[in-house]
TrEMBL record:
Source superkingdom: Eukaryota
GO molecular function: nucleic acid binding
Pfam families named among the record's database cross-references: mTERF
Protein name: Transcription termination factor MTEF18, mitochondrial-like
Coiled-coil regions listed in the entry: none
PANTHER family assigned: CGI-12 PROTEIN-RELATED, TRANSCRIPTION TERMINATION FACTOR FAMILY PROTEIN
Amino acid sequence: MMSLFNIAENPRFYSTKRIVQTENGQSISPVSRTEAQAALLEYLHSTRNIQFTDAENMSKNSPHFLEKLLAKVDIDADIGQSITRYLCFHPINEFEPFFESLGLKPHDYNPLLPRDLMFLCDDDLLLENYHVLCNYGIARSKIGKIYKEAAEVFGYDYGVLVLKLKAYEELGLGQSFMMKLVVCSPYLLIGEVNADFVKVLEILRKEGVDMSRIEEHLSEKSSYDWSKLLALLNLFRHAGYNEKQLGGLISHHLAIFFEDSVDRIYLLIGFLLKFGSKMNQICSMFLQFPQMEFEEFFSNLRHCFLFLNEIQMEAHEIRNILRSHPLMLGSCRLKKPNTLRLALHAADKRMCEVIQENPQVLKKWVMGSKVERLQNLILKSRMQKTKFLLDLGIVDDSNEIGKALKVFRGSGAKIQERFDCIVEAGLSRKDVCEMIKASPQILNQTKDVLEMKIDFLVNKVGYPVSYLVTFPSYLNYTMERVELRLAMYNWLKDQGKSEPMLSLSTVISLSDKKFINEYVNSHPRGPEIWQNLKKEIYAE
């Protein structure tokens, strides 16, 4: 009870002095701590002849070591004298406060302690290279990270580290850039100038990226692997990015490459490939990447996948949505399934149906939004689609609306967007309406997919866009099927085993069985070439 009354005697709800405890539970006031630091400084500088600035940094920035020292002396007596007396008869391992003063925790530096040394003066190269980094302008508290990741640097002979720093400066890098670079990539100081780093610099400079922007995005808390970054940039190049596209990606989204997220980008690419995306689709996604942190985007995308899985959506439907709408999913932080079940008044099966009908509805189910009951959303969507179909004359009779609504998937706005996309490619509205009547499934594909297929037809195959009017179902076939059939047909034509003027519709629309029997098997090496092309195209 006495302790309770003692606390209550002070009516203030704040304190100007912080009392800390040593390892054995003894309370140490800030004044006593300052006296202990002064005694340690006096010992390190006057007795051990350590440079004053080094000794001061060690005494003021090694709290764990100081607490361990205080636990061994009588703190009820004069603390300064107690520590001085103790240190006279008990020499300390000077590497402990030294490493801690460099920003390392005991669990970090304990494995790094020399086994046969106690005094700093016995490792003159360690101190020499430490002073080179200090004099270069690197904060002492950040040098510990360099030691932990590249201890070899601190064993360099006199003058070697200075030359290595100058070698990087000769690449056109300023001292302020180098100060951050050395902390976030200490391994660059090992060996010769790092070739991967130089290649990354060349790519960035070629794309017009200023070094000051890179410096701005470098984080000294992170560790950068420039070989991985180089591999990622090359991956985008080999996947089809031209110089202008790569330059645009780097310039507009520089942060995602220097957000300590290169490994995450590889994970995202693997994640999307697993769900059926192609590298050209993934590259297109990065060109349109939203202005947000990559970590948040990746987390949202993963959360959406878990959400769809939890409401028991079929695996192939999840695959289709993730492949077709990665940007939208990565920009949405969905509410939890239980919250949406209550707000929508709907079971999992109904939610799955609504999402499959119009994946864009997920944007209305994000954290912080007011969710409408499902019945209202469905009614609005039906009205939009009905208006679209009647306005364009795709259905002439209101009795046909029910059948048409089942064929066209997506909201009215999305169907309109896809229709406009085909018109904007160079066709009249009348022609596109006729195409839709002949092959309505065309409008069940996303705008991006339609644009990609039209671009391939016009720019790769060499057909005019008007060819779609006579063969609208071209847009229903996958790009892999089209590429594989054309590659095989061209090979057979070169071998003199195929008619030279077969129409595109004939090449594409035949069933696999008939195409193989009539064309692939017409050459002895046909089946082998077919399988090789198939592996190559589907692997891409």
